[in-house]
Amino acid sequence: MRNILSGLVLFLVISLQGCDTSKRSTLKIATSANMNFVIRELVQEFNKETSIECDIILSSSGKLYHQIKEGAPYDVFVSADMKYPQQLFEEGKTLKSPDIYTKGTLVAWTIKPIELRNMDDIFSASIHKIGIANPKTAPYGVAAISAIHEVFGTNLDEKLVYGESISQITRYVHSGSVDVAFTSLFIANSPSLKNVGHWVKVPNELYPKINQGAVVIKGNDEENAQLFLNWLMSKKGQDIIASFSN
To answer: Which residues, other chains included, contact 65 with Cβ-Cβ below 8 Å and sequence gap of 6+?
Structure first.
């Protein structure tokens, strides 16, 4: 009987230890498409320091917002704006209000032999299709349509080709489906793309500020999610983000 009881105690101890996955679970990080390349480097360095594994879910900020609202089991939301994470906070789905982890920059980018020095060149007759992310769900789409309308009114609307997200716009550029695309500096200046074609910054005064926010989602792996958010806001995390803006 004593041996049986000892065995049961040992079994229970092992079982309880096995149930403690808080330090070993995989974080699900819902990330706006403009942060595609940046988030991969951030996650890689975070994993080196903490041994915490991370899954990256990429989409437009608006789509990720709706998925989280409907109960998607994400741990961190890294958005391309403040609107969507702020809405989640007001709906009681985050631990606290969003932190501004970076400020985005809009660029016009082409890989075709097109003269592209400033916004005025977008009006060129050689530019037939202009790619922008869907302004209904993508903050960089909002910025792009604002800049275009500020300079050209609605004169270029018939040339606009909408993509689901910045990622899709990037594919449009590479496939030649569009002549010019409005995208994020984080994409155009990433190590794998910075020497592909050429880009120009869109003047800041032509579009609303792109303050990008991040939040921890309630109800999942809150402890490790907060560790990631703290690391994102730390000097190391901020230095990585800044390296994509130089």
So the answer is: 77, 79, 84, 85, 87, 88
Q: How far apart are CA 115 and CA 129, in angstroms?
A: 15
Neighbours of 153 (CB within 10 A): 9
Closest among 76, 74, 80 to 61, alpha carbons compared: 80
**Both structure tokens of 138:** 């993508």
Dihedral sign for Cα 226, 236, 203, 138, please: negative
Rounded CA separation 83/76 (Å): 15
Distance in Å from the first CA to the final CA of the chain: 71
Half-sphere exposure for 85 (CA within 13 Å, toward CB): 29
Amino acid residing at 149 = H
Tell me the C-alpha to C-alpha distance, in Å, between residue 79 and each of 32, 50, 134.
5, 23, 15
Q: What is the pTM of this model?
A: 0.86
pLDDT tens-place values along the chain, 246 residues long = 444 444 433 333 333 333 343 444 799 999 999 999 999 999 999 999 999 999 999 999 999 999 999 999 999 999 999 999 999 999 999 999 999 999 999 999 999 998 899 999 999 889 999 999 999 999 999 999 999 999 999 999 999 999 999 999 999 998 999 999 999 999 998 988 888 889 999 999 999 999 999 999 998 899 999 999 999 999 999 999 999 987
Burial class (CB in 10 A: 0-12, 13-18, 19+), 191: exposed
Beta-strand ranges (E) seen in the chain are: 27-32, 54-59, 76-78, 99-104, 106-110, 130-133, 160-163, 180-184, 198-201, 210-216
- 131 Cβ contact list (under 8 Å, min separation 6): 160, 161, 162, 163, 169, 172, 173, 177, 178, 180, 181, 182, 183
